[in-house]
Amino acid sequence: MSLRSRIVLAVAAVFATISLLTGWLMLNRAETSLRTAFDRAVQTRANWLLSLVSVDPVVVSLPAETEQMRVVYEAYGHKRELFRSPGFPDTLTSARRSYAPMYRVMTVQATREQIPDGRVSLTLAVPAQSLAQDIGQLRWLFGVGWLGSLLLACLGGYIVAGWLLTPIQNIVRQADQISNATSIDPIALPRSQDEIYQLTDSLNLMLARIRESAELQRNFFGAAAHELRTPLAVMKTGLEVTLNSGKAGEAIRPFLTGQLDEVSRLARLLDEFLTLSRPDTDTPTLRNDEIDIPHLVETCVAQLVTLTTDYGVYIKITGKTMGPSIRTDAIKLEHVLLNLMENAIKYAAPGSTIRVQTHYDTDWIIQVQNRTVRETGPTLDLLQPYFQADPLREGHGLGLWISHRLTRLIGGRLRLDWQTFTFISELALPVS
């Protein structure tokens, strides 16, 4: 539920509670006023009928057809009923209980000036249908008015909430336009010096810190890569010269070959860091090489034979070997494939076989599948930098993140799946 909706519901709930309580009190007072006015009219009618009563001789004015009346004369401790309408109850209490709520019952007594020798009381019951109709109409009007005012309050609250949240929506729109951490523009400050202004100012300070941190990280990657390229190039050249000179004995040749593979891997990692250290706003420089996918996969597998031996696993290529060649950056694609295969080798269950499957449909699909010790894991987190599924294993949690970034640069798609002790890295490469 949005913040705007919650504000409207809160306003509507408060308004409904207060208006209902206030309206109920006012409705009770209005109903009481109607009943009091009706009772006064009945009392006036009863006094008028009583004024026409005479004891000697007995003269009683008859009530209307819809009215019920009882006249009692009391003198010297004795009561005598002068008149009773058919069906009228014996006592006043019974009359009020029998006639309610169809009748309003009123009892009046004559004064001594009117009848000096005794006391005459007249009880009049008048139909209350008109009073009930008036009260019913009043309640209906109150209900309709309350519902109408509640709807108007909701509409007004929705409009006012939208107006109040406009600055926050502007902040959200400007924040959505931020595409990367190195090109963060400050959010425009609102004109009003209120809490929204303070929030925007705090967000701008936070975004500035994020931009500075991202720039420092990129500068570190670039500087470190540049500083390490020269010594690694010297080491790689020295190892290649030693191996090609024929002076290295057979006993140390495997060791030197392994060292050359590690130096090549570090050089490749530095090239990846240099690529990722460039700002996202810069258009990456991509080579346009024609690549035979099956041949490239075989080349990458051949480079990792020594690594598979070190980890005690096997690697096997399966799938179709026929399909069109693609044009993309061969170096970056080779880096991605080597990273995916290295990740599979390092995290595969000991003694298992890693399967690299290639097939062509509308795109080239390359799957790297390996058995794992764990049943499943968080695949989305694996695409984040410095995340390791197993912190006890060697590595820094950068391989899959780098592969994901490089895949996006060359226009491909990388999908990860980890279920039932099987981890699959699927790389899709468009032909065109």
From TrEMBL:
Keywords: ATP-binding, Kinase, Membrane, Nucleotide-binding, Phosphoprotein, Transferase, Transmembrane, Transmembrane helix, Two-component regulatory system. Pfam families: HAMP, HATPase_c, HisKA. It is found in: Membrane. The lineage of its organism: Bacteria, Pseudomonadati, Bacteroidota, Cytophagia, Cytophagales. It catalyses: ATP + protein L-histidine = ADP + protein N-phospho-L-histidine. The chain crosses the membrane at residues 6-27, 140-165. One of its GO terms (molecular function) is ATP binding. Residues 162-215 form the HAMP domain. Its EC number is 2.7.13.3. Residues 223-432 form the Histidine kinase domain. This is histidine kinase. It is an enzyme of class 2 (transferase). It comes from Spirosoma soli. InterPro entries: HAMP_dom, HATPase_C_sf, HATPase_dom, His_kinase_dom, HisK_dim/P_dom, HisK_dim/P_sf, TCS_sensor_his_kinase. The keyword Cytoplasm does not apply. The keyword Aminoacyl-tRNA synthetase does not apply. Coiled coil: none annotated.
